[in-house]
Amino acid sequence: MIKKTFKSIKELIAKINWKRIVYFIIATSLALLWTYAVISKWGDHEVFEAQLARQPIPSNSIGIVFWLLPGVELVCAFLIAGNSTRQVGLYLSLAFLVFFTVYVALALSGMIWEKRPCACGGLFAKMSWKSHLIFNTACTVLNFIAIKLHRKLKTTQGKRGELSERAGRPKGIITNQILN
Predict the structure, then answer these.
(1) 86 with 150: CB under 8 angstroms?
(2) Neighbouring C-beta atoms of residue 14, cutoff 10 Å
(3) Residue 130, CA distances (Å) to 53, 60, 117, 138, 177 in order
(4) Pick from 85, 114, 72, 69: which is nearest to 27 by CA?
(5) pLDDT tens, position by position, for the chain (180 residues)?
(6) Beta bridge partners of 179
(7) What are 16's strand-pairing partners?
(8) Where are the beta strands (DSSP E) in the chain?
């Protein structure tokens, strides 16, 4: 009996689509990251506006950036959260992460400005610039991995979908997301 149970568990584990799980975890994490970024900026809007005033941008553009930056981050989160819009969201997210990573690298280099202004909110405001660079680089790499996985899963989805329907598997959300 125990041997049969372990065999069943082993068979189930073999059927799990680990690429899809990793993809789902990364995409969900990115959507949550952008959502948190928006909440931390607009949640403490006076601090965010004051931080923007210290940025190396024209003062007449602060109002635009105040709405545009978190607005695009929110769009990123919503696009990544949607199944049909996820690919666009991942590309937009990657572009933003590359931009922020370059910004942090320039701030660390001291080539553009000596005083290093930061417009980050929440927990990110407490991070050092080096920590920001490491965190942003890691998120950029994970975002790139999610794009690659999206492409791989997209090319095999039709084939696997047809097979799973023929095999009589249930069509539940969890089953479709995790099993081959």
Answers:
(1) yes
(2) 8
(3) 23, 30, 14, 12, 36
(4) 85
(5) 666 666 677 777 777 788 999 999 999 999 999 999 999 989 888 888 888 888 878 888 888 999 999 999 999 999 999 989 999 999 999 999 999 999 889 888 877 666 666 767 777 777 888 899 999 999 999 999 999 999 998 877 655 443 233 334 444 444 445 444
(6) 16
(7) 179
(8) none
Evaluate whether 70 touches 41 at the Cβ level (below 8 Å).
yes
DSSP run (H or E) holding 109: helix 86-109
- According to DSSP, residue 124 is labeled G
Side chain identity at residue 48, one-letter code: F
Q: Is 49 within 8 Å of 82 (Cβ atoms)?
A: no
Can you read off the two tokens belonging to residue 80? 């990544």
Distance, CA of 135 to CA of 36 (rounded, Å): 15
What is the pTM for the complete model shown?
A: 0.77
Place of tokens 């290093």: 116
Nearest to 28 by CA among 77, 68, 70, 92: 77
CB 140 within 8 A of CB 97: yes
Helix pair angle (18-43, 62-81), 10° resolution: 150
Neighbours of 39 (CB within 10 A): 15
